[in-house]
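Please fill in the sequence for the structure shown.

STRUCTURE ENCODING:
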């Protein structure tokens, strides 16, 4: 087997259609095969959540980076739980820059979180952008100053919605040099 696989690990129950969608998105973007692991329960293995069921993303990434997954180039964990880090009170995802692991939360990507009607198209667009952004960090890409680039930082969902789902020419060139 190749060690050029991005392994996707759902933390808790994640809809299979979302996992299939993001697997396809990753393969199309990075030209790397994905593998899906079964749902994983971390509740007994990481620090307990804050009130409101908010988990420390940095702790989860550290826990996952210590785990060995055969044939895995990168590991993407996806959760429905809300996340925070020591630096940010809320976030959509976190990744280890030039590291192995990325983590994405679906919690704040849905319109319903903002008391708006559900919109699957908006949700999937946000999901795609956050996942690709975080995985790109694991390959060494940093935030970009181009507001249209997928690597532009997102401090709210409007930032996610307004940026492109593609890399700007500069970030695309950097990614090509890495791969």
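FILLED IN BY: designer on duty
SEQUENCE:
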């Amino acid at each position: 087997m190749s060690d050029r696989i991005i392994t996707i690990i759902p933390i808790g129950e994640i809809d299979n259609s979302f996992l299939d969608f993001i697997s396809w998105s990753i393969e199309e973007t990075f030209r790397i095969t994905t593998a899906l692991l079964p749902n994983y329960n971390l509740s007994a293995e990481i620090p307990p959540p804050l009130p409101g069921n908010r988990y420390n993303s940095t702790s989860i990434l550290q826990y996952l980076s210590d785990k060995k997954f055969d044939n895995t180039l990168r590991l993407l964990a996806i959760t429905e739980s809300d996340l925070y880090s020591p630096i940010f009170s809320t976030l959509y995802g976190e990744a280890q820059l030039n590291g192995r692991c990325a983590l994405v939360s679906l919690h704040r990507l849905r319109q319903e979180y903002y008391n708006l009607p559900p919109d699957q198209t908006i949700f999937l667009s946000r999901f795609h952008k956050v996942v690709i952004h975080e995985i790109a960090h694991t390959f060494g890409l940093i935030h970009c100053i181009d507001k249209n680039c997928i690597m532009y930082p997102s401090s709210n969902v409007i930032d996610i919605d307004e940026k492109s789902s593609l890399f700007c020419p500069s970030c695309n060139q950097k990614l090509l040099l890495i791969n």
